[in-house]
From TrEMBL, chain A:
Name of the protein in its database record: Uncharacterized protein
Source species of the chain: Knoellia sinensis KCTC 19936
TrEMBL record, chain B:
Stated name of the protein: Uncharacterized protein
Keyword Magnesium: no
Transmembrane segments: 12-32, 82-103, 110-128, 134-154, 166-196, 275-296, 303-326, 346-364, 376-396
Keyword Membrane assigned: yes
Keywords: Membrane, Transmembrane, Transmembrane helix
Organism classification: Bacteria, Bacillati, Actinomycetota, Actinomycetes, Micrococcales
Length: 45, 581
């Protein structure tokens, strides 16, 4: 019983972080070039 | 969980090693493909050449010395692609195992779970993510060597013969140049110095002496030319731009506590915009550092002092009221420019936090009932990964190996056959978005693949403005452009023999104008080189450069020979983890 409870609690916490972090991590496109630029900016998003 | 049962040592070694290698492969996956990774400050050369830039001959303050030259040497032996794979993999594996070794030194009875947690936290954190995202592998090298260096210092403080390990750590860091040396030598000297102040001994004094000697020798290749440069090296800009910045809703201090806070907003991990993620990262590191300090009985004062010293230096660059003092430090202290990007100083915090959180995890798990132990251990190991999920598989496509187009290689080979002379580089900016590199921002490859003096714009274009470079000749070209001249015309006036234009970089070059100025030597889809038929400068090593390189090479070879004599080969990472005080 305790083992099942422990596994469930752990699973819920892991799932919460996985959803929050994972969705954020895959959303941006790294270093997407600006439409036009004369100079490449080092810290361009 | 915490027991040190006879025969249990293989698990305590094998499992962390397996975790370290596996997580490195998960992070570097696409970077391990065919070709080389070219991103931001890691324009890994597909042609291993000791060019004037690589050797630091054509700049008043060489920044890629001796790291680039060492990688060229490795590239000549293994090939550029394999060399980069080996280096990147070694950095992450070495970092994880270094923290595991530090845990082993501080708390020998920590079990497999604690060691694995420490190794995972060491790698899955914002510091590694943000620095790798901009290709600053030398900073990650400093982070990776740091736990080995701190471990060596702790052994010296405990009266053990570990001066050789102090020398080895600093010598390895010296390969990375100024940034990695600052992290490793700085931390080690502070820790040894504090230990000496608390409880003086001849052994600690010897350790400090060796650390100073190897640091000075290892730094000579870049320090001597920089300190003796007559022009440019004293100009330090960008102090405000390079100050730590908030990468989360927790502000600058909250971001730094979690291991983030790098000034470059383009590297800030998206998941850290969630307060839950950022707060948990900060809490994890704070718990880890506090545990580390408490876990070193007899050396708490020295460990606390180490954290306080680095926090105090960092505070100068973060607290607005202290900014004038910080500016004075950066400008007035020899080599102070290396402190400008001060966020890297939290490397000490990250290493101590990772080691301490491993010890904390071990103690938590050992107090739980058997029913809770497994799930909680899984949670503690997985948590750091879930706090930095962007690291998975090449940091969202930033780290991916690409093949440099064959026409560039062919063009460079033809340029090698041309008469001597320096090369002016267009587009007039040092950053590129090569089409064949999926438009990733990166430094230009040219100074690393053209074995001549290459005149390029060494200023740093930021969203907040331009940080001036250090090459006065390049600055003169930029002035002419600012005065209304075209980049092509301004470069012609600089007196170079050749003009090389990298094409397909997302920036315009007037190729028609260039072709009309002289004899076209290379005309490829990605590279145009025109010979203007003039005499021009060639690179010659100054006395300071020659002396600097000689001292650094002698130092590194000396440490290597000393290690061989002591039979350190039998104490590779696995052996170090196993060893007991």
């Amino acid at each position: 019983m305790m083992s099942a409870l422990a596994a469930t609690v752990t699973g819920v916490v892991l799932a919460l972080f996985a959803v929050v972090g994972g969705v954020s991590a895959i959303s941006p496109t790294p270093n997407a070039p600006a439409a036009s630029e004369n100079v490449v900016v080092y810290d361009a998003p | 969980m915490t027991g040190n049962r006879p025969g249990s040592w293989p698990r305590q070694v094998i499992v962390p090693v397996f975790v370290a290698v596996a997580q490195a492969l998960v992070i570097l996956g696409p970077a391990m493909g065919r070709g080389v990774v070219i991103t931001h400050d890691m324009p890994w050369s597909p042609r291993p050449l000791w060019t004037p830039f690589v050797l630091g001959l054509d700049t008043p303050a060489p920044r890629a010395v001796p790291s680039d030259a060492a990688m060229v040497l490795l590239g000549k032996v293994l090939g550029p692609s394999m060399a980069q794979h080996l280096v990147l993999l070694s950095l992450l594996v070495g970092l994880a195992l270094g923290v595991v070794a530090l845990v082993s030194e501080m708390a020998p009875h920590v079990g497999v779970v604690g060691r694995c947690v420490a190794g995972v936290v060491a790698v899955w954190n914002p510091f590694v993510s943000e620095r790798l995202a901009v290709g600053q592998w030398v900073v990650v090298l400093g982070l990776a060597v740091l736990p080995w260096g701190l471990r060596a210092c702790l052994r010296v403080l405990r009266g053990k013969p570990a001066s050789y390990a102090v020398c080895v750590a600093i010598a390895v860091a010296a390969i990375g140049g100024v940034n990695s040396m600052l992290l490793v030598s700085g931390s080690m000297l502070v820790l040894l110095g504090l230990g000496m102040a608390v409880k003086p001994s001849a052994r600690i004094a010897r350790g400090i002496g060796w650390a100073l000697l190897v640091s000075a020798g290892g730094a000579s290749a870049w320090a001597l030319p920089a300190l003796t440069a007559a022009d440019g090296a004293g100009i330090i800009g960008g102090i405000d731009e390079f100050a730590p910045a908030a990468d989360s809703p927790m502000g600058v201090v909250g971001s730094l506590l979690g291991g983030g806070g790098f000034w470059n907003a383009a590297t800030h991990p998206e998941p850290r915009q969630h307060i839950l993620i950022a707060a948990c990262s900060a809490l994890l590191m704070v718990v880890g550092v506090v545990t580390t300090v408490l876990a070193v009985p007899g050396r708490r004062a020295a460990m606390t002092g180490l954290v306080v010293v680095f926090a105090a230096v960092l505070a100068l660059s973060v607290v607005g009221a202290a900014r004038p003092v910080w500016t004075e430090v950066v400008n007035a202290v020899p080599g102070g420019g290396a402190l400008r990007d001060s966020q890297k100083l939290i490397a000490v915090w990250v290493v101590l936090g990772a080691a301490g959180f491993g010890i904390f995890a071990d103690r938590v798990a050992s107090r739980l009932s058997s029913a809770w132990r497994g799930p909680v251990a899984a949670l503690l190991i997985a948590l750091p990964m879930l706090l930095s999920p962007q690291l998975v598989w090449g940091i969202g496509g930033r780290l991916e190996a690409v093949t440099v187009p064959s026409d560039i290689e062919a063009g460079l080979s033809r340029l090698e056959q041309a008469p001597p002379g320096d090369v002016g580089l267009l587009p007039w900016s040092q950053y590129r978005r090569y089409e064949w590199n999926e438009d990733r921002v990166s430094l230009t490859l040219a100074p690393r693949v053209i074995d001549r003096v290459v005149l390029f714009d060494d200023s740093l274009p930021l969203r907040s403005g331009v940080v001036p470079g250090e090459n006065l000749r390049a600055a003169a070209v930029s002035e002419r452009i600012a005065g209304g001249a075209s980049a092509e015309a301004a470069l012609l006036d600089a007196g170079v023999r050749y003009v090389a234009a990298e094409l397909g970089t997302g920036q315009d070059v007037d190729t028609t104008f260039l072709r009309a100025q002289g004899h076209v030597v290379v005309d490829e889809p990605h590279l145009l080189v025109v010979d203007l038929g003039r005499g021009s400068e060639t690179a010659e090593a100054s006395g300071a450069v020659r002396a600097g390189w000689a001292v650094t090479i002698i130092t590194l070879i000396g440490v290597l020979c000393a290690c061989a004599v002591r039979g350190v080969r039998s104490k590779l990472p696995v052996g170090l983890i196993r060893s007991r005080p």
